[in-house]
Specification:
Length: 197
């Protein structure tokens, strides 16, 4: 990277820190004019565009970043997240799968994969993804809830019961929500002391 591109990159980082995304994006674009091979600037620009909902501009940036660094799992995850936000679950699944292939311990990618599979009603795949997510982060109440719902859709009441009982130990509001959403009124006594939210 040349010196002027490096200065622009530092200014872009400062603008990000100051929460001035327009200025940061302008600096990253200048970096890419000066040094089109800057994967760091390409990734950062893609992320900022996606975070502002400018998906049409973000997607080519993500793909450009992945051409420069195809082994970066977090970029694959961010691409999957962007597709998920656009309600493109099949594309999201592809990106999340690549992210977990590259970095199997990336729990948020497993979670995203599970959510995208759920949107396509692919509950076997969703169950496997959420199982990975809760193995990596056993205190993730959201992942446990989604795992319970995946088992509910697979008509496995024993697994749902086990997850509700497990959740009730540390995430009681998620347990209550799962009881209601999975129609397990037989287990409502577990959370009878909780107020409805």
């Amino acid at each position: 990277m040349n010196l002027e591109a490096w200065r622009c990159h530092l200014r872009a980082r400062l603008y990000e820190f100051l929460r001035r995304p327009d200025k940061a994006m302008a600096e990253y674009r200048t970096v890419l004019e000066l040094d089109p091979s800057s994967a760091r600037a390409t990734r950062a620009l893609a992320f900022l565009l996606a975070s502002r909902g400018q998906y049409a501009e973000a997607e080519p940036c993500f793909h450009a970043a992945l051409r420069l660094e195809p082994q970066r799992a977090t970029t694959w995850f961010n691409l999957g997240f962007m597709h998920d936000k656009q309600r493109e679950p099949a594309k999201a699944i592809e990106a999340f799968r690549e992210a977990v292939r590259l970095k199997p311990g990336l729990d948020r990618a497993w979670y995203g994969l599970g959510l995208s599979a759920t949107r396509l009603e692919r509950y076997d795949e969703a169950t496997q993804a959420f199982e990975h997510a809760v193995q990596i982060d056993p205190m993730n109440g959201h992942a446990w809830y989604q795992l319970g719902m995946a088992y509910h859709h697979r008509h496995n009441p024993d697994k749902v019961r086990g997850i509700i009982e497990h959740l009730n130990r540390f995430e009681r509001h998620h347990a209550r929500r799962l009881i209601i959403d999975a129609q397990r009124v037989d287990l409502m006594h577990l959370v009878a002391d909780l107020k409805s939210s």
